[in-house]
C-alpha cells in the first residue's frame, strides 16, 4: 500500500476512535487516572468534551447546562420530544402532594406540576440562582402561589427531612457532580413510601439526537439509584425518547 494511502487510512481510524459514540474527547497530558477522591469517583484526564472528567460506577458525569441556555429548556419542540402531559399523567399526584422538581431549570415542569397539586406545593430546586430568578419572575407574572424555589448545592438539594412525597428529575440526574451524596440527601428528604422518578433519554438508542453523556441506560440508572437504598418499582417506556424510571423509599 502506498504511503499516502496508509496515512489517509490512519487518519480515518483516528477520527473514528475519537468520534465513536457521538463523542469528542479532550486530553490534558496523561492517560493515567489523575486522582481518586474516594471509592466512588474516579478522575481521568482523557475524557469526553461533554463531560467533567469525573466517573461514577463506570459513567462519566456530564457538564451542567448553564443558565444562559435556558431557552433550550423552553424550546417548542420539547412538547413533541418529551410529551410532558403523558409524563405528568403517569405521575398521578394527589392534590395535596409535596413534589420536588430537582434540576428545575426554568420551571418547565414545576409550573405544570403546580396546577396538579392545588392544595400541595412544588419545590423547584436548582443549583443556579439565575434559573431560580427566572422561576420567581414567572411565578409573579402568572400569579402562581404554590411553587417554592430552593437553591441547592452540588451535594444537597436542601430539602427538609421526610417532607416530600415525590421527587422528579427530568434530564437532570446525569449532570449531578456528586450523584451519590445528592441521592442520599434526596432519600432523607423523602417521606417513607415516597417515590423518585427519573426521566432520562435512552442511551440504548443511538438514533436519539442527544449527546451521549446526556443519555443513560436503564441498567445504569438502576445500578446507581438502588445503591442508595431506593427500590426499583417499574420502568415506563411511554415517552417518545426517554425512560421513565420509578423508585420507592421503603
3D architecture notes:
The chain is an alpha/beta fold and 250 residues long. It has one domain (67-248): Rossmann fold (3-Layer(aba) Sandwich). Helices cover 30% and strands 28% of the residues. The chain has eight helices and 13 strands. It has helices at 3-19, 70-73, 78-82, 84-91, 108-114, 129-142, 179-189, 218-226; strands spanning 25-27, 41-43, 46-48, 51-56, 59-62, 98-102, 121-126, 147-151, 164-170, 190-202, 215-216, 231-236, 242-248. Strands 6, 7, 8, 9, 10, 11, 12 and 13 form an eight-stranded mixed beta sheet that branches. The longest helix has 17 residues, at 3-19. It is globular and about 50 Å long. It starts with a helix and ends with a strand. 32% of the residues are buried. Mean pLDDT is 86; it is low at 6-23 and 25-34.
Relative strand content: 25-35%
Q: What ranges have pLDDT less than 50 throughout 5 or more consecutive residues?
A: 6-23, 25-34
CATH class category name: Alpha Beta
* Strand segment tally: 13
Number of helices: 8
Radius of gyration: 20 Å
Under the CATH scheme, the architecture is 3-Layer(aba) Sandwich
In N-to-C order, the SSE pattern is HEEEEEHHHEHEHEEHEEHEE
What best-fitting shape do the alpha-carbon axes yield? globular
Q: Can you summarize the main beta sheet?
A: 8 strands, mixed
